[in-house]
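OP here, attaching both records as promised.
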Amino acid sequence: MNTGEDKYVLEYHTGDDSDPQGPPFKYRSYYLADVLAEAWRIAESGGQAQRVARGRQAVFEGEGLDTMLARLSEQMRAGPDVVLREVAERALREAGRAAGG
């Protein structure tokens, strides 16, 4: 039985969230690179990515998440043909983390 523990979960608030103190929105994927790509999109649109977890274990949060998103931003400047998911996979490899599920 699938309990959802095998998915990565991004907790975030949007830039226009009417209650930023309320519970965060959640985005789920089996792939860490997808979750980080979504976190980057949210941050770029004025939102705030708060935490990436798998099950109850935090994968990225706070300064670690900020550092990873900064790494993605830096690599996205490479040109218009870059693919965000590929950038996230490369950043994870460079950080010594697995990109898959």
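Record two, same layout:
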Amino acid sequence: MNALISKLVTTVFIGIFAAVVFLPLTISGVGTALPRDVAVQGGVSAFLAVVLFLIVFMGLQMSTAFVSSKVVDVLSPLPLSKKDVSRTIFLSFIRIFDIPLIAAAIIFLSVYFIIGGSIIGGVVSVLGIGVTEIFALALTTISAQFFYQRVARAGGKSKLQTFLRFGFMLVWLLPTFAAYFIVNFAGQIVQSFAYLAQGFSSISRILVLVYPFSYGFLVSYATSPHGVDNITLGLSIAASVAYMVAGYYCLRWLTLTVRKIGVAGFAAGPREIVKDTLIKPQIPWLGIIRKDLRVASRAPSFATLFLLPVIQTVVVAITFSSFTQVGPSTALGILTGISMITLLLPPTLLAIEGLASSYTRHLPMKKRTMITAKTLLSTVTYVISMIVLSIVAVVLGKNFSFVLTLGMIHAFSVSAAIMLELTILLRKFWKEGFAVGNIYSRITTYIMILIPGYIVAAIPILGGFTAYFLAPPLFLPVFLATAVSEFAIMTAVVVRQK
């Protein structure tokens, strides 16, 4: 499911960027203050660069999981030859990126011909997008190998390993920020590429040697031939051919590398000597929190979920920064998005334990201890989002005090929703024998756990909306009373858990 979502999100971003970049050219013939040839050159170069970035970073999580898998152990017992196993592994890897790869090529060619492209320009476009996708697959494979060999499989107690894990966690976060800015500032990005090409016309012979400007220049020249000297045109063709040759060797390396994945000892880096196990007894709820943080630090895909509410807060704050005044309706809308993202975290805090979660029920630990610990950790994540919102408000020079006030009050309701989700999940785990580690494979159960939490978090918001339209002076008292009441009720329920 995660792979499908990642592929669809990447495809959507590619489609939106292409529309924003090339659609103006179909409306007015130029669509920009720049000459058409410069606009096409900037658009093509920017599109290729964005496709490279999105495929590399959006696919990094899934490619790391593929590198760390032991797929050969599953395929080897089957009646398949080594060649068939090798081919199957390579096709499985390509399936991770199939939709974005195909969509990028189709979208690029379709939009190019819509804006009046030529046959020769179409051929160059195919070559350019093909080379870009090969480079993207090679880069994401190298990144995934490095992470698994040097970070995930290596010892985790050194400061260097901690720093590397934190760095890769930020890498996982980067696409979320970048995708937002790419979509919202697509026009500015294209203009930057175009102005760069136009501004450096005096040294254009050097610029056409740089990827992706070499392909951008050729596509632009093939679309609407303009006066350039033969040396510049020749250098652009030579550079493009050189990148094609590099892409060919990258594809060969990629094929050989991917087919080796899964072989014993390939993905794993050097193992450290196992030292004596040290047991340090501590307060149960504090131990649970420390354990969750350490487990998540070894899996950036889970670690980023802790910071996802913070990311959304920054994105939402920048989005609403153009508003001169943030009223109750806008504030409640912002809180709705942040709380919905935060409520994805509690089930994950149990799911990341995987097989280890099956041993938890046999420990001398009460359910209320686990609920309290994970509620505290999730609520802290929400509170940090409010702190980040205040920092962004100061940086942007905006007054988000009303949103912050409602946000801190809504923390009571969010905490109540978190406790409800964990109570439902642990009841299934303790009484029904539900495998917590397999929660994502049972999407219906996962949704049925989230819905009650979303309802609890939405009640104060709906009550606030109603009071705002019917009796504005009662808006804040109703919002506060509803949130605190929910928190008190769920606290009483959790205290009774044994």
